[in-house]
Specification:
about 5% strand; 3-stranded antiparallel beta sheet; Nucleotide Exchange Factor Grpe, Chain A, domain 2; 9 helices; about 300 residues
Length: about 300
């Protein structure tokens, strides 16, 4: 025996491979792979229709010679494929899981025949989503800018009135007497500063001044007594510096209205006169003044002054 024969006899002979059994095992796997490709094809067509593009064209085998001669390349025959079921446009693209390949148990060391080639496994294709359009920036919103109202010039101690050309309370109450009697400015400044400080007696005095100024010819004499009592309630000591311009203004208002009533003042220490004074207790001398005497045009008493006596 030759050395080659001896070596061949010594090597183990591999078991024969049954190709029919191998094909029976691989045929179901190939059919599953083809079904996977069909499902991917249906998904791609639905995705193309959703994006507004035409369905993907069937792949054609390029022919160099046919392209050079401008002749259509022959298409290879394909088996008829059932019409794919197109999903609605808004349906999410279907994701096809890869088919699992079940291989038969092979003995250790066994190998497939060289003429059997397994097809590549279908890989799932990631769904392509249409990018959302960028939101356009919103225009800036115009905001209202508050406009400050111009400050109205006011006199010291006066309360400004809102509105253009409104003047101030001194002008409203005392009118043109502000220009005639310089003492009116002091009276008005003191009164209005205490009104701003919320002094009740000053607020009451301001109210009676407005009531007297706005009253008609018949009511003005009747308000003179209450106006005097409001003043002495505000300034119990009388304060001649403020009282004198107040009486001058009252007489000017009465003159413009054609009223001849006049005011007569009572002083502490005066002898008590029951025709002119009104006291709750008995006494001979005035100890405190709480009002003034209002006289008629003939000099007779129109209303008495409230006083305290001792």
């Amino acid at each position: 025996m030759t050395p080659e024969t001896t070596k061949a006899a010594a090597s183990p002979t591999p078991p024969p491979v049954n190709l029919v059994e191998v094909l029976d095992v691989l045929r179901p796997q190939v059919e599953k792979i083809e079904e996977g490709f069909k499902a991917i094809r249906i998904t791609l067509d639905a995705l193309a229709e959703h994006l507004g593009a035409a369905p993907a064209a069937r792949s054609e085998k390029p022919s160099t010679s046919a392209a050079a001669n401008k002749e259509p390349a022959p298409q290879e025959e394909r088996r008829p494929v059932a019409e794919p079921k197109v999903e609605p446009p808004m349906a999410a693209p279907m994701r096809v899981p890869p088919a699992e390949t079940v291989m038969p148990a092979q003995p250790a060391g066994a190998a497939l025949p060289p003429n059997v080639v397994l097809p590549p496994m279908a890989q799932p294709m990631a769904a392509v989503s249409k990018p959302a359009p960028a939101a356009s920036p919103l225009p800036p919103v115009a905001q209202a800018v508050p406009v400050a109202s111009p400050a109205q010039p006011t006199r010291p101690g006066s309360i400004p009135v809102t509105g253009g050309a409104g003047g101030n309370w001194s002008q409203i109450i005392f009118g043109d007497q502000l220009k005639v009697d310089p003492g009116i400015g002091s009276l008005s400044g003191t009164l209005l500063s205490e009104v701003q400080a919320s002094v009740d007696d000053a607020v009451g005095m301001l109210g009676y001044l407005l009531a007297f100024r706005s009253a008609d010819q018949e009511r003005k004499p009747k308000l003179l007594k209450e106006l005097g009592e409001a003043y002495y309630l505000w300034k119990p000591d009388g304060n001649p510096r403020l009282l004198s311009p107040l009486i001058n203004w009252v007489h000017a208002v009465l003159d413009r209205a054609g009223i001849n009533n006049r005011i007569d003042l009572v002083q502490v220490g005066d002898r008590y006169d029951m025709q002119r004074h009104n006291a709750k207790e008995r006494g001979a001398e005035v100890s405190a003044v709480a009002g003034w005497v209002v006289l008629r045009d003939n000099g007779k008493v129109y209303s008495k002054a409230n006083v305290s006596v001792r």
